[in-house]
Structures are given as C-alpha cells and as structure tokens.
Amino acid sequence: MSIPMTEMSHLGGDHHGASSSPSSNNSGPISYAQTDQMVRDPNELDTKRNFGNQFNALFRKSSTYQWRQYKTNACQISMPLLLVSSSSIIIDQVAHKHFHSYLSFLDYFIVDNYIGDMQGTKIPAILNPNATMPSIYDTNSTIAGDCLKYLPSVYAKDLYYINELKSNTTNEIAKLIPSYVNSQQMVVPLIFSEYILGDFAQYCSDTPSFVYPMGIVEGPATYDEFKTQIFDKWKTQTVNGAYNFGTVDNNKLEVTLMYNRSISYGKDLGLFYTLVTRSYRLITGNNITQFIFDGVKDFPTKKTTIGFDLISLIGPTLYIFIFQLILPVVLRIILYEKENKLREIMKMMGLEMKTYWLVTYIFSYSIYLFAMLLVWLLGAIFRFRYFTMNSPLAIFFLIFLWGHLLVSFAFFASVFFTKTDTGTVVGYIWVFGTGILASNVINNILANTSTPASSIFVISLFPPFSLFRGLKILATSVTFGENGLKAADIVSSGMADVYGFFIIESIIFLILALYLEEVLPSDYGVKRHPLFFLKPSYWRGDKVVVAPIDLNPTMEGEPADVAEERRRVMETKELLALEVLDLNKVYPAQGGAKRKVAVKALALGVDQGICFGFLGPNGAGKSTTISCVSGLFPPTNGTAKVFGMDIRNDIDRIHMVMGVCPQDNVLWDDLTGEEHLLFYGRIKNMKGKQLSNAVYEGLKQVNLHEETGKRSVAYSGGMRRRLSVACSLMGNPKIVLLDEPSTGLDPASRKQLWDIINAYKRKCAMLLTTHAMEEADALCDRLGLFVGGQLKCIGSSSELKSRFGKGYKVMMTVEHGYETEAQKFLFQQIPQANLLNALAGTFNYEVPRNSVELSTLFSEFEQNKERLHITDWGISNSTLEEVFIKITMGRQNERGEYIMDDKPVDLSHITNA
Ligand SMILES: Nc1ncnc2c1ncn2[C@@H]1O[C@H](COP(=O)(O)OP(=O)(O)OP(=O)(O)O)[C@@H](O)[C@H]1O
C-alpha cells in the first residue's frame, strides 16, 4: 500500500485541534493565539512619528531615486538650456543673413511698411499747420517736452548727403534739403506711427510734442570717401545715414539711401525715404515722375556686432517657455508616485504627508533652480544682454521667486490628474499654450499704456502672465540700447510688484494644493470634510471625535459561526489586534459600472499573534476589506479598530504599527531591494546597527540578499513579490496585512515565504488573503470564507473541514479487468462510500467521517489488495478546497447545510450487486 504522505498528514486532524474552537462559548482570545509581546493597551505601542527620521528617510530615498534618474533628469534640465543655446545660434544666423547678405530685402520691407503706415496716419486736428514731414527726434530739445525723456537716445543728429551727381543738371534737391530742414521754422509735429516707434509712441501720443528735425549736412564729395570716413567712425556711431544722389531733375529723382544700422536698426529707413521724396515735392512743386530708388546700403560695421539685442527683443516669448519648462517635470515626479500608489503605500507604512510634501517640494525646487542657474550661466556666456545688463539681483529674484510659484502651481495642478502621462502632456500644452498666449495677447495688453491697473492686476493673477510681465520689464530695459534694469529701479520699474505676485500666488497655490489633496475625492485615501479647517479641534491638533459604532448583536441570515464571531467581538475583554465592526464598503457607480456593495456588515476579530486568512472567490471583497483596514479607502459604514485605535480618527498612529503588502507590487523601479527596506525601516524609526541588521535579515529571509545591487525593475515577478513582503515586515509592525502574498512565486519561494510568515506570526498579527488552499492550511490559524462581500463561515482549517467536508477521501487504483471486484470489496468495507469519479482504473470515493474504522480498513486492504489486483490505494482527510467549492458553488438547504447540485456519478447498481 502507498499512502500519499502529504494527505495522510491530515489524518487525525490539522495542526490545530478542533478543541481550540472559538465556538466554545468563551469570549476571550482564541486559545491558540500566542504572541511574544502581548499588548494590553494601545498606549504601550510606539506610534510616534519622528519628523527627523522620516525626513531623512524620504530625502535619502528621493536623492537616490533622482540620481538614478539622471538620464531623464539631464534630458529634462537640458531642454531649457537647449532652447537658450539654439536661440543663440538661430539669432546669430538671422542677424548675419538678414543684416548682411539679405539686407536690402529686409529694408525694403521696412520702407514699404513705413509708407503704408504713414498713409494711414491720422494727424490730430489740433495740429496746425498739418504735418508735412516726419521728424527725427532731437532728444536734447527743450521744446520736446517730458515725453522725450523716455525715448531711446539712439538717434544722432547728423544725416549726411553726398553730392555725387551723375547728371550734369544742378542738384537742387541736394542743396535744398539741408536748408529746408535746418530752417528754424521747420518745427514739425511729432507724428510717427506706432509701427515705427513701437512702445515709445505711447508716451507721446497724448501730448503731441514738437521737435527740431535733425541737421543734414553735406558730406564728403564721393561715396568712397564717405564710406572710408564712416568706417573710421563706426565706433562713435554718430552718423545716421546718408543720401547718395544720382540724377536729380524736375522729372527724376535717383537716390541711394545709406543708413547706419548700428544706430537706427533700419527703423528710420522709411523716414529717410519720406524726407527726400517730400522735400523733392515741396521744393520742386512736382510730383516725381521717375523715382529711382537704388536700394539701401548698410554702413560698414564691425562684423559680429549687431545693433540691438534680438534675443532680448524676443526674450519674454522665449523665456516664458524656458522658465516654465520644469512644470511638466515636477508634475511627472508627483504623479508617478500618485499613479503607482507609492504615495499611498508610504502613507500606510507610516510616512507623514507633511514630510512627503516638504521633501517633494525641496526636490522639485532644486531641479528647477539647477536648470535655471545653468540657463543664466549660458545666457551670460552667450553675452545675452538680458543676463549681462540687467541687475543680477533683479534676475536672481525673478528666478528664485518664480521657482516657488512654479512648484506650488505644479502641486496644485497635480491634484487634478491621476495618470502621469496625461499630467505631463497637459503640462507641456500648458507651457506652450500660455507662452503663445502671453507673447501674442498679453504682450499687447501690457504694452498699451491705457490698460487699466485693474486689468494688469487680473492678468498678474495668472502665474504664466505675471511671469511674462516680469520678463518683459527686463527685456524692455535692454532691448533698445537701454542699459538694463538697475537694482535701484526694481520698485519703480514694476518688478517689485511682479515679485509680490509671485510670493502671494506661491502661498495661495500651495495652500490650495494641500487643501484639495485633503478634501477632493480621489481613487485612494480617506478625505476630510471640506470645512475641516473651521473646527477649532483641527488647529488644536485634537483627535477627530467619531461616533462609536455599536455592533449589531445579530444580523439576519448570518450563519451560526459568523453570528458567534460577532458575539465574541462584542463581548471580548481582550485587546484584539483587529476588530472589524459592521464594516460596509459600497463603490459608487462610475465609468459605466454599477454601484457595487463590496463588503456587507462584516464583523470579526483577529487576535494578537495569529494569522487570519481571508478566502473567497474573485471579487468577494477580500482586498476591499484589507484596503479599508489599511486606510486606502474609507469604509462607507462601520469601522475597524487596530489595537483599539479606530481607523476613522487614528489611522496615522495605526500606520506606525502596520505593515502592508498590497495585491500589486508597489515598488520604485529604480531602487534596489536594500534601498526599499532602508527607506521603510527609517520611516519606522529604525537607525544605525538595528536598521542595517534588520535590512540584511529582511533581504536574507526573502532570499534577495545576494541581489543588493540590482534595481527592482530588473527583478523577476517572484522577486518583486518577495521584496514587497519584506517591505511590509520592516520596522517590527504589530499587524501585517498581506494581500495574496504568494501570487507568482515558484514552489520553493512559496515555501520560503511560508516559513517567514510562520516565523513572524508569533510576533504580530497577520491578515492575509489567498486563493491557494494549501497556503491557507499551512499558514492560517483561522480562516474566514467570503462570498459576495459577506462572511459565510469562520473557524480554523480543521473546524471548517469537519463542518463542511464529508469526512475522508479514499482512492483506489485497480488493474484493468478487475474493477468490479475491487469496487464490490470497497463497498463491503464502507457501505456509505460515495463514488466521486472513476478514471482509467482509478476510483475516488467520499467517505463519511464516522463510517469507517481506520485500523480495520488498513488491515483489510493489506490482506486483499493482491488478490483483488489493487495496485495502489490511499485515504486522506477532506481538503479545504472541497470546503471552498462547497461554500462558494453550493447552495444552502432549508437546514442551512451546503449542498452541491451537481450529483456524483450514480453507481448504485455496483453497490447493490
Ligand atoms: N475601486 C473600485 N471601484 C469600484 N468597484 C470596485 C473597486 N475595487 C473593487 N471593486 C469591486 O468590488 C468587488 C470586490 O472586489 P475586491 O477587489 O475586494 O475582491 P477580491 O475578493 O479581493 O477579489 P480577488 O480575489 O480577485 O482579488 C468586486 O466586484 C470589484 O469589481
């Protein structure tokens, strides 16, 4: 005979005798509950969170994590740098191409526009005589009035003409222009269009001023001489431009314009043009019938010098992208931990959220600051006036304060996203969208001096626009020959206002972010009442008062053992590791799914030092119960107490004595196993030798001690699972919740895991869910079987088997052709045997527990097996699996017994034979 040893081991009962039944009408602890350190009062537990330890734990973890992410971080940080560098190259190219090779194209464009502009100019009626000719500013003019002090002083006084006539006719025009413009009566109204003057026109538009036109003097006799002279003088830059007349007579005006780009940037080309054509008309009285405009010639200039800082001109547009580019990066940092439940698991393991936000803030800000300081450095290296001419103090405050607003705003925005990728993409759209909006719309609003202060105030409430305002002030200070913003001008320029907005908005967004995190419903976490801050108890730091839950003494339809468990929980005087008190969880209808009652009026107690197993089919509500107990979800009704501490108002303290291994492995891909354990150990106040020993032991127990350098992303599924279990056991928790801990483990690893759990369960209480019946058998002192969110039975494995199993199983294998004789023999020995199945000569029977005398059965089989050609036989106890199947698939009859509708094969003809 061969008796399957594993099954035979069940003979004579399980590892816990039925005598230890909780149903023995006592309300004390389960008799086999043992623990090395019995807790009698929750105050005996070390539930204090130490800010220093947790800060240290998180700071080290985040530093290591960010360091491991150096490639991603380098890419993200280099984006702003790339923008700065590439803009420098592009602008250099544009400057050289347009101002040197394609100069005339650009300048024709300017002239054309200018003419168009002039035609549309409305001359104010009060001006008399009407303006006939535009003027160039004489900034020294006292007549000009106050408005001119705002104008850039780039216009020098002298404009030359060269009398290098090709024709033999007298060059009347050449003579007349100087006398025309130099005559004192030629005080002309200032009527430049806004196109030409840009922002500066705003200053003078309300108070038309009169200025002297500049002087025009005769220059050297030939163009070549003139060129030489200009080239010699380019550094002093006193000459604005020159005319070189060709043929000039009553019908024809042939002229070449030359201008000094270093001074005038081409802005006054139109002016030069108009000056000569209108003078011609005024002096000759003729309309020009033939105008030969020979194009525009640039004055010789030093090769690399460009007259104005294009980068500063387009600065606000460019810099608004650069300054905001870290926003999606920060969003990614926050959302990664949110989406992957890492934030929740840290919380469940005891991390204080204040510490979490502080460290996340410091890291996000550091990444931003590092990137921006590099941008500043690069800007200085490329000699962008923006960075070299503006006061370093003004730039520093802009970078420093904007960083705070950016990070606070990212915190605020992160509240509205759950997926990392969605948040990051929206972040980039935000950066570019607001950048484009700012440079196209907000720019004009800010540039318009008639924009009321209230509008500017409203605009500034929007972070990207207040940034744009600051960037524009700095840009304006350097664009057209200004000397940059001085530290002394920070207040008068409006920069101080911008800083003020940054500071106030940072505080507002930070408070909003933290507030919304506390109250806004989300996938995980217990949320506060929206008006929680109005309660004085919140500010005093008092514990929230919650109504006590009185367990219903009876619940209709509850099986006897479950009702008994309810009574035990109500009456027990002992401090239980976990009391579940009429816990209900209803998931609201969402995304097409109906409202789901996942857990119904659950009442049970888990004693200290035992391992309690939740069994049940998929969707029975096991994980939901664990999630409620761990604080991942708030219960809809009812509550649970861990060592007497209520999950509704003491969850933070509970977390310090709790270890959680969720159903999915919640790990940081880029951290090693050792780093995970160090982190969780530090959170739970472990230090020094104690910590390093615990980490080593933890890794050794799960057989990961030789994988210390490997990051968890490179672990196999089983290794990740073992690491998750090791994390949950760090820091000597008093209660450990394990949601399907052995999923995906090979048999050897599973055995190892069982050894760990068996070793730990005397030190703490454990709650585990599993689908593996042998695991429940091997580990759990008590089991609860769930179906449809309700507890269907509760007890030790042996109790359940004896209550719901039919007794023993007998297996017999018979040689071909001798089956009938062998079966007859079996029914003679055990008349109540019930054939479950017969396959290829192997027969399985169910045998009622008291229907057989085991010793007689053994000797009868031994004596007859050869005669009956029985090659193998065995007897085993009912398995938990049968109990499981019976309860989950069977139905209850009127006496409350579980029966299976699928009847076994009817072989009564054999029995009767
Ligand atoms: N976040 C959720 N939102 C809505 N319904 C949910 C949510 N989580 C679980 N449920 C539903 O609640 C019920 C119980 O789910 P739960 O995950 O607790 O079952 P389980 O017993 O742990 O199952 P399994 O053994 O498959 O892990 C299921 O019907 C499930 O669809």
Question: What does the model show?
Answer:
The chain is α/β, with parallel strands linked by helices and 913 residues long. The protein has 4 domains: 269 residues, Rossmann fold (3-Layer(aba) Sandwich), CATH 3.40.50.300; 225 residues, no CATH class; 197 residues, no CATH class; 108 residues, Alpha-Beta Plaits, CATH 3.30.70. Helix content is 47%, strand content 15%. It is built from 35 helices and 23 strands. A 6-stranded mixed sheet has the order 13-14-15-10-16-17, sandwiched between helices. Strands 4-1-5-6-7 form a 5-stranded mixed sheet, sandwiched between helices. The longest helix is centred in the first third of the chain and has 32 residues. The radius of gyration is 44 Å and the shape is elongated. The N terminus and C terminus are likely disordered.
Overall structural class, as computed from helix and strand content, comes to alpha/beta
Into which percent range does the helicity of residues fall? 40-55%
Please provide the count of β strands. 23
For the largest beta sheet, what order do the strands appear in spatially?
A: 13-14-15-10-16-17
- CATH homologous superfamily name of the largest domain? P-loop containing nucleotide triphosphate hydrolases
CATH architecture label of the largest domain: 3-Layer(aba) Sandwich
Unique ligands:
adenosine-5'-triphosphate
Total helix count?
35
CATH topology of the largest domain: Rossmann fold
Strand content: 5-15%
**How far is the N terminus from the C terminus?**
26 Å
Main sheet? 6 strands, mixed
- CA radius of gyration is 44 Å
The CATH first-level class of the largest domain comes to Alpha Beta
- Contiguous runs where pLDDT drops below 50 for at least 5 residues: 1-27, 91-159, 164-174, 176-216, 300-308, 904-913
Overall 3D form: elongated
